[in-house]
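Researcher: Good morning. I'm working through a list of sequences from a screen, and I'd like to move beyond sequence-only analysis. For each chain I'm collecting a predicted structure so we can compare shapes side by side. This is the next one on the list. No need for commentary yet; just the structure.
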Amino acid sequence: MQLLSVLVNNGTEYFTADHIRHSINNGQITVIDHLPIDFYNLLLSELKTDKSANKSLTKLGLTKEQDRVEKFFDCNYSAFGGDADVTTCGKLGDREVVKCDKRDLCPHEGKLCRLPNQVTKREAQVARAITKALMDAEITSTLFISQNTLRNHKNNIEAKIGQTGKIAIAVWTKEVGLI
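Model: Good morning. C-alpha cells for this chain:
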C-alpha cells in the first residue's frame, strides 16, 4: 500500500485538507503554517526549471517568490498522494494530480500543474467527458471537435494509459483524480 511508504520509510508527505496544510513524517500528522524551508527550497528549484509553470504564475499576477512557490505547491504537491513528496534522501518526489475546482476552466491546466500520463489538456477534457458517460455525438458537439478528432484523442489516451476502451478511460480518469 502506498500510504505505508510515507509512514514506514520516513519520507515526508505534504497535503492540504480543508485549506489547512499538513505533513506526515514518521507516522505523525502535523498541521503546518508555512512550508518548511528545505521543502520550500526543493519546490523553488523545481519551479526554476519549469518555464511553462513560471509563465503561468506570471500571467496569474504572482510576482513574489513565496506566493509563486506556494501556488506551485498548491497545484502540484498538495494532494495526499501516498508516496512521499520528499524522500528519505531529501529529493523531491513526483508531482501529484491535485483536485481542483477550476478543472477544465483553468487556462493554466497542464502548464502550471501537470496532467497524468502526459495527456494534453484536450485529452483530459475528452477523458472527463467519457467518464460522464456522454455519447460520442455529445462529446464532439460539446468540445467542438470532429468525430475523427475524438477518435484520435481516445486513441492517444489509450496509448498513454496502456489500456483500451471507454470503461478503462473512465476508471483511469477517476483513479488519477481528473474528475
